[in-house]
């Protein structure tokens, strides 16, 4: 029974929040005259002492004490004696755990935000270096059109910005205090829920005591935001894996972020990126697990809810570590811009530019231009040449508008430089986007 019932091995991570919430509660009980001022002082001094002990020596794990709430209270009894028994007046572990956990998730949102911000800063630094470096842009993992590496990296800065927005929103919504809901129905003692809410930095007390002890949607929101962020990280990790492979050769990983093989001496494997990619599974699973825990639960508290913490802690740890690892990789990997530049022209990647040229310079309708360029690509393929090297006579045979001048305009440099629409890949646009992202990051 103890083994299945006890949560202390997991919820010991809530010790700071538990002690903070108990200190707020005891101060309120004293201020309201529910316990004496002397008892409130004794409790507070005892809790402060426990905080010092736990910070120094860690939290003792005794399954007989079940969870962090009982662990703190039992130690308080040893230190403060009789007044300790008055701390639990007008509260229950149900509002206590909901309060502690909200405080923890609130700070987790802040810590993940800081990690996402670090990743953005690293991406921005690399984007600045490579605002004009040309690489192939892909659709279907087929070379599509040339883009700038800076532009590609900025795409992840945008994703991270939305991820941060999700954690910000989750934090704002969860920031209400369950404390004082007691077991589920509220309490007959003249408590001051506004005071405890304020002391703990909550915006206000939760309005419904039944909701306060039952709800875990704040934890679900955290897991949902974490899962979406993890999917973004996984895509970046996947690109690093692909780019680091020899057929691509777009990046070289530093020794610090690659591993060798026990048999093949030449190997440099992108293990960290692969683990970030794989761990997105854990994060998606965390949301799923918590959703299933909550799904069929009648109001109010059932012990199923105890497993919310292991789920959220696991998601937090995986995401925080993934962020740190990816940030380290982004900061230190070497971009092989020569290789990227060479492949940017492959696959007739400037074919769209030729179609655009025919539209702009020769007044050809786009659909017809698309058809003409298709024929040019086919002929170039047959001849085994780049589009720009299609012989003038061959080009003229396809359509009179495909002049040597048109073919000469088909460099990857001209292609990216022409993409000046807002949000486009032209180096000048990328530099503007970097400046805007920098300003947003620093504001
Ligand atoms: N350890 C419990 C949890 O994490 C605390 C709440 C216990 N409440 C109860 N009614 N048994 O959920």
TrEMBL record:
Keywords: Amino-acid biosynthesis, Arginine biosynthesis, Cytoplasm, Lyase. It comes from the Bacteria. Gene3D superfamilies: Fumarase/aspartase (C-terminal domain), Fumarase/aspartase (Central domain), Fumarase/aspartase (N-terminal domain). It is an enzyme of class 4 (lyase). GO terms for molecular function: argininosuccinate lyase activity. Residues 348-417 form the Argininosuccinate lyase C-terminal domain. Belongs to the lyase 1 family. Argininosuccinate lyase subfamily. This is Argininosuccinate lyase. It comes from Sphingopyxis flava.
């Amino acid at each position: 029974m103890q083994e299945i019932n006890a949560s202390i091995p997991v919820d010991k991570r809530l010790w700071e929040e538990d002690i903070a919430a108990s200190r707020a509660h005891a101060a309120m009980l004293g201020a309201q005259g529910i316990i004496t001022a002397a008892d409130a002082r004794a409790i507070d001094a005892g809790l402060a002492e426990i905080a010092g002990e736990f910070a120094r020596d860690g939290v003792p794990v005794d399954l007989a004490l079940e969870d962090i709430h009982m662990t703190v209270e039992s130690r308080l009894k040893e230190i403060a004696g009789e007044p300790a028994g008055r701390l639990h007046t007008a509260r229950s572990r149900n509002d206590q755990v909901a309060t502690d956990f909200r405080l923890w998730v609130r700070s987790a949102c802040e810590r993940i935000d800081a990690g996402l911000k670090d990743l953005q800063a690293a991406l921005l630094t690399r984007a600045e270096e490579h605002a004009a470096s040309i690489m192939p842009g892909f659709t279907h993992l087929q070379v599509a059109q040339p883009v700038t590496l800076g532009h590609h990296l900025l795409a992840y800065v945008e994703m991270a910005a939305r991820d941060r927005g999700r954690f910000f929103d989750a934090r704002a919504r969860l920031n209400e205090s369950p404390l004082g809901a007691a077991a589920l129905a509220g309490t007959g003692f003249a408590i001051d829920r506004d005071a405890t809410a304020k002391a703990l930095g909550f915006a206000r007390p939760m309005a419904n005591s039944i909701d306060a002890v039952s709800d875990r949607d704040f934890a679900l929101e955290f897991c949902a935001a974490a899962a979406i962020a993890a999917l973004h990280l996984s895509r970046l990790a996947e690109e690093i894996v692909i780019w680091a492979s020899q057929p691509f050769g777009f990046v070289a990983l530093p020794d610090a972020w690659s591993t060798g093989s026990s048999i093949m001496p030449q190997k440099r494997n992108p293990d960290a990126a692969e683990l970030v990619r794989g761990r997105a599974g854990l994060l998606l699973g965390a949301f799923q697990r918590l959703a299933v825990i909550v799904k069929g639960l009648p109001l109010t508290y059932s012990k199923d809810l105890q497993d919310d913490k292991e789920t959220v802690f696991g998601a937090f740890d995986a995401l925080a570590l993934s962020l740190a690892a990816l940030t380290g990789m982004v900061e230190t990997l070497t971009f092989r811009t020569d290789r990227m530049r060479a492949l940017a022209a492959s696959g007739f990647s400037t074919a769209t530019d030729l179609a655009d040229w025919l539209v702009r310079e020769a007044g050809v309708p786009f659909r017809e231009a698309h058809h003409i360029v298709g024929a040019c690509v086919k002929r170039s393929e047959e001849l085994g040449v780049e589009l720009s090297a299609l012989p003038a006579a061959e080009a003229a045979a396809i359509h009179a508008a495909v002049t040597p001048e048109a073919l000469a305009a088909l460099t990857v440099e001209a292609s990216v430089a022409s993409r000046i629409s807002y949000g486009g890949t032209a180096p000048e646009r990328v530099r503007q986007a970097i400046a805007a992202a920098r300003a947003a990051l620093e504001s």
